[in-house]
Amino acid sequence: MGLLDRVPPLGADAFRALMRRLAATVTVVTVPGSPPVGFTATSFTSVSLRPPLVSFCLDRGSSSWPTVERAAYVGVHLLADGQHEVARTFATSGIDRFAVHGAWRLGPYGVPLLDSPAAWLLCRVTRRVPAGDHAIVLAEPLQGQHDRGGAPLVYHMGGYSAVGPPSQRSAA
């Protein structure tokens, strides 16, 4: 028996405490429906350049999962510094998030598009992969737009902050 065989698995609370140290871009994922669905996610990442693919993760026990499980298209909105309330609104359960937020419009395929994010992508869902109590949703970006400046909103240690542009490095 090796040393690793005697180490107990990391518990959910310890894992959550460790992962709070990971700074993550704050995104809102929106999904067509009646009513539309939207939620705040910090698990968004690019996956592939050829073909272009992105992913986000969602708890399969969440109220948003049944709609995401059937969705053919989604919108992904990378939030900008100053959009803390947008992040909080779409992270709050038990409310009509789109009515509270108010600043959105219907885009192609009926996907709700939020006004004024740092960037947005309209994506076609290509695959859903079960992963523990979550699902990894893979999607192909079809359209997108970004603003020319500003800092992204990030989530770290249970709170929101911004990250500015990289500092200029002096030539050696």
Automatic annotation (TrEMBL):
The keyword Oxidoreductase applies. The keyword Oxidoreductase applies. Residues 19-162 form the Flavin reductase like domain. Keywords: Oxidoreductase. Pfam families: Flavin_Reduct (PF01613). InterPro entries: Flavin_Rdtase-like_dom, NADH-dep_flavin_reductase, Split_barrel_FMN-bd. GO terms for molecular function: oxidoreductase activity. Its EC number is 1.-.-.-. PANTHER family: FLAVIN REDUCTASE (PTHR30466), FMN REDUCTASE (NADH) RUTF (PTHR30466:SF1). This is Flavin reductase family protein.
